[in-house]
């Protein structure tokens, strides 16, 4: 069931009042627990209690909340029975809070205010026009690829908001599984039963050497020719590190690692400083001090894919961005 409300009506009402909480800080709570409020919908017994506490009259509260008086009365009796405490002192048709009731009311109003804000927040995040996409991507995608993707997507969806996470592949998969991300761009493309992954593009990796290196005058090189070189690589757990290790093994050697880092451009700088050589994707901007050689004799590429949790329902903005990414298959990366 969709709980629809007029935004104009909500804006025209004074929806919240403030009072001093236990710490002395002003706390906002719903001023009118109408049938249309999220707190009344999601927490009816607490909302009934707060409505009667405010009016000190069961009949009047029932009329304001648009529920039968008998329903309201039964809910209050059941609440007191469950708590084992009298919350109200009855005086004919009127009621007043007991000391326990006053204590309970302060916490109930804070709780109902949080329910109201939480409901509005998740509805705002799912709004087709202005909702939120939690999107993760690799460090090497951050300088050009992801900004270009978001710019292109927002040409047709200008109000959609993004929560961005830049990390290595395994960390993003963990955050997908934890529900912290909706989608992520990663490499290698994961193969796991709880994930859906689609290959979008590939990057050709190059052997990066200092510009005074013995191979620097070449345009192409077989990776086996670098078997005796020191390598600077990403740390274990990074997808590019796994690809580097696999390619070197395929070429017949295990790389001798001089440095393990977290960011590809740092590695490129260390290559320029003469610390070693590296297998890296193309840079966003050419870097002086290095030469980038085409690797021949084996398929030195990394595949880039998008992944999401299998069976996880998409909000409209997430579905739109997913469709956009899948539509960029083969042309995800800048030329």
Give the gist of this structure.
The chain is built from 11 helices and 15 strands.
Report what the structure shows:
Helices cover 37% and strands 24% of the residues. 30% of the residues are buried. It is α/β, with parallel strands linked by helices and 335 residues long. The longest helix has 27 residues, at 99-125. It contains eleven helices and 15 strands. The radius of gyration is 30 Å and the shape is elongated. A five-stranded mixed β-sheet has the order 6-5-7-15-8, sandwiched between helices. The protein has helices spanning 7-12, 38-42, 44-55, 58-65, 69-83, 99-125, 145-154, 169-177, 239-250, 264-272, 316-326, and strands at 16-20, 26-30, 88-91, 94-97, 132-137, 161-166, 183-186, 195-204, 206-210, 220-222, 230-234, 256-261, 278-280, 290-296, 301-309.
What key attributes describe this structure?
335 residues, alpha/beta, four-stranded mixed sheet, 15 strands, 24% strand, elongated
- Record the strand order, biggest sheet: 6-5-7-15-8
Unreliable stretches (pLDDT < 50, length at least 5) are 1-31
**Overall geometric form:** elongated
Radius of gyration (CA) equals: 30 Å
- Profile the largest sheet: 5 strands, mixed
